Structure formats: C-alpha cells, structure tokens
C-alpha cells in the first residue's frame, strides 16, 4: 500500500517535468523560428514559402514590398503565381518581369519545388545588373565605332593620295588624314585616362595646393582658349586652400571641364574658373556663357560616350568621355559633380573634392 501510494504520488511530478521540458523546447523552437524569420527578413531578395496545397506559409519583408498596390507589383505577383503552379508540379520555373519606367526595372522571379512538398519563390530586383550589362555592351560598341571611324577615313584618304598627282590636293588630303589620326589618338588617350582612373582609384593622397592647381589647369588650356578666342578668367582663391588627393587626376578632371567650357562657347566669350571651401570639401566651379545643355540631357551627360548632339560634338572633336572622367575623379576624391545649365545662356559645373584637414 505504502509503495503504491508513493508511485502514484510521483506521476504528477513526472508530468510536470515533461510539461516543463516541452514548454522549454517550444520556447527554444519559437526563438529559432523567429531567428530564421529575422534572417529571411534581412535578405535583399524577396522569399515566399508555399505549402503543398498552394497556401502561402511565409513571406519575408522584401516579398511583402510587392504588395500589389501598383501595376508593376501586380505583374510580379502574377508571375509568382504562375511559377508557383509549375514548382508545385515539380518543375523549376522562372522569368524576368520588365517594368518600363523610367527608370526601367527588371525583376527576376524564380520558383523551385521543395523536397518535402511545397515550393520556394525568390523575387530579385536585377535592374542595376541589367543596366551595368547594357552600359558595358554599349561601351564596347562605342569604342569600336569611335576607333573604326577615323581609321576608315585614314584608309580612304591614303588610297586617294596614292593616285593623286596634284600636290595641292595631296596636301589637303594629308591635312585631313592628320586630323583623323589626331582624333583617334585623342579617343585612345581619353580611354586610357578613364580606365586608369577607374581601375586605380585615387592613386595618391597628397595635399594639393588649390591655387596652383587652378593655375596649372588654366595654363594647360591657354592654347586651346586662344584658338577659340576665349578668355579664361581665373578667380583668385580667397584663402589658402588645400585639396587632398591625386594631383594628376584633379588636373585632368578640371581641364576636361574647362576644355568643354571653351569648346562650347562662342568666340569672344569668357570662362570662369574658381574654387572655395565647402565644409570639409573644396568646391571647384567652371562657368561659361556658351550654348548650354538642354534640360532633358542633363542627367545623362556624365555617362561614357553620351553626347547631347553628336554633330555638334564631332565639330568640336569631342569623344564623349570627358565628363565620365570628371565624375570618376570626383568620386575617387569622396566628392561629386553637378551641373546647372540653361540653353543659350551657359553652364556651371561644380566639382567637389576632399579638402586636406588643417
Ligand atoms: P565631349 O568630349 O563630347 O565634349 P563630354 O563627356 O566632355 O564629351 O561631354 C558630354 C556632352 O555634354 C558633350 O557632348 C556636350 O554636348 C555636353 N557639354 C559638356 N560640357 C558642356 C558645356 N560646358 N556647355 C555645353 N555643353 C556641354
């Protein structure tokens, strides 16, 4: 009797221990689930987990972003539904949804069947990757075009010269050939400069005296300015300013800005070159009263090879790489470049670069 009594007394104890253990296990599992959900939510890719019957089991934060509010969202959700159906039948399925902007957006939707049943969907915004690919393809096509045109012209000019006996004509053709060769050389120089700047980052980080920098840039462009009958007005730097970075790159960027200002101004015009402190940056300003830039082109002029008007740039011997170089130099110096322009009135480019700490 005594023994039985003791045994039945211990049953509630054992149940209590088991319940306590089960509770602890439940808490541990809940914490694990919430940790996994947290990890899913921190993914930049949208993830949707679908049960065998087609019911959505879980959706991470990025997937919730496609709420179905806009037309684009609806297209993405339709693609998700379609691919889930395929994945539930055991097939991997996917497609890209293009949302014509601007800006153009490309969303990749992929669904895979899960081993234990159900499906997993990944929704990824690949717009940037698509844009970079397009830029790269354009870049190669542009380089080929840029170099093929003068080389083709050189071949034609040389061929014509072979049979030409009139010395005056030969002289004219040779002059043309020289200009074409210079154009090809200038494109190659710009390409080399751009790739050096892109690949190398800011090669040096040394104090650069701003007044001296402006002086050197104005010097470098003085001949071209004279040819175009433009006066480069270098405004005195109010205090002693020192930039921090790669002197050669800074000269190259500012020279490109001044070169453009000279090229796109009418004879008799003035180009202003100045610099001032702007917080922990130096702001370099190049201002002209030239032909200006149409508002619709302002966003694009810093892209490689972009020209507002190919005909007008060709006349001025441009390669379309100058402003791409400027943008890279600015970013290598923790700065940026901005433009304000009114067609027919002129343009102001402001490039900022890191200042040396006193
Ligand atoms: P480019 O070698 O053709 O001058 P850039 O990259 O330097 O190439 O400039 C891109 C385009 O921006 C030019 O083709 C030109 O149409 C326009 N642009 C740049 N600077 C100026 C300016 N100061 N005034 C007017 N147009 C400009």
Please give a structural write-up.
Strands 2-1-5-4-3 form a five-stranded antiparallel beta sheet, with helices on both faces. Strand 11 (337-342) and strand 12 form a beta hairpin. It is α+β, with helices and mostly antiparallel strands and 358 residues long. The protein contains nine helices and twelve strands. Adenosine-5'-diphosphate is lined by residues 256, 260-261, 264, 288, 290-293, 301, 306-308, 313, 318-324, 347.
Quick description:
With 358 residues, the protein is of the alpha+beta class. The chain is built from 9 helices and 12 strands.
End-to-end distance, in Å? 94 Å
The CATH homology group name of the largest domain: Histidine kinase-like ATPase, C-terminal domain
Count of DSSP H/I helices: 9
In the CATH hierarchy, the third-tier topology of the largest domain is known as Heat Shock Protein 90
CATH architecture type of the largest domain: 2-Layer Sandwich
Strand order of the largest sheet: 2-1-5-4-3
What number is the mean pLDDT?
Answer: 89
Helicity level: 40-55%
Class by SSE composition? alpha+beta
Index terms:
binds adenosine-5'-diphosphate; Helix Hairpins; Heat Shock Protein 90; 12 strands; elongated; 3 domains; alpha+beta; Beta-Lactamase; five-stranded antiparallel β-sheet; 358 residues
Present the secondary structure layout:
Blueprint: H1 2-41, E1 46-50, E2 56-59, H2 61-64, H3 71-88, E3 93-99, E4 105-113, E5 119-125, H4 127-163, H5 167-200, E6 206-209, H6 210-227, E7 231-234, E8 242-245, H7 247-263, E9 270-278, E10 281-288, H8 310-315, H9 322-332, E11 337-342, E12 346-354
Parallel strand pairs: 7-9
Antiparallel strand pairs: 1-2, 1-5, 3-4, 4-5, 6-8, 9-10, 10-12, 11-12
Helix pairs in contact: 4-5, 5-9, 6-7, 7-9
The site of adenosine-5'-diphosphate has 22 residues, from helix 7 and helix 9.
């Amino acid at each position: 009797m005594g023994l039985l009594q003791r045994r039945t007394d211990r049953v509630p104890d054992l149940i209590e221990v088991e319940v306590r253990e089960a509770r602890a296990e439940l808490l541990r599992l809940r914490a694990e689930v919430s940790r996994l959900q947290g990890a899913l939510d921190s993914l930049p890719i949208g993830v949707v987990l679908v049960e065998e019957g087609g019911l959505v089991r879980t959706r991470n934060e990025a997937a919730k972003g496609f709420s179905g509010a806009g037309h684009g969202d609806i297209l993405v959700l339709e693609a998700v539904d379609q691919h889930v159906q395929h994945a539930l039948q055991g097939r991997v399925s996917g497609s890209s949804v293009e949302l014509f902007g601007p800006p153009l957006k490309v969303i990749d939707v992929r669904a895979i069947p899960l081993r234990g049943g159900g499906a997993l969907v990944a929704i990824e915004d690949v717009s940037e990757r698509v844009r970079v690919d397009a830029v790269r393809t354009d870049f190669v096509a542009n380089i080929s075009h840029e170099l093929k045109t003068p080389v083709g012209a050189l071949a034609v000019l040389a061929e014509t010269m072979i049979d030409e006996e009139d010395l005056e004509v030969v002289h004219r053709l040779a002059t043309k050939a020289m200009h074409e060769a210079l154009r090809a050389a200038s494109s190659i120089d710009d390409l080399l400069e751009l790739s050096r700047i892109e690949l190398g980052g800011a090669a040096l980080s040394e104090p650069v005296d701003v007044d001296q920098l402006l002086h050197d840039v104005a010097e470098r462009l003085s001949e071209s300015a004279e040819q175009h009958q433009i006066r480069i007005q270098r405004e005195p730097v109010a205090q002693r300013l020192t930039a921090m970075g790669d002197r050669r790159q800074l000269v190259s960027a500012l020279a490109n800005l001044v070169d453009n200002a000279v090229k796109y101004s009418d004879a008799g015009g003035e180009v202003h070159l100045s610099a001032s402190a702007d917080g922990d940056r130096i702001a370099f300003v190049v201002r002209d009263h030239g032909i200006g830039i149409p508002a619709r082109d302002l966003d694009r002029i810093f892209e490689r090879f972009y020209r507002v008007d190919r005909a007008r740039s060709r006349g001025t011997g441009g390669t379309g790489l100058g402003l791409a170089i400027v943008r890279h130099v600015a970013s290598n110096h923790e700065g940026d470049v901005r433009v304000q322009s009114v067609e027919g009135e002129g343009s102001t480019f402001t490039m900022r670069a890191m200042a040396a700490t006193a």
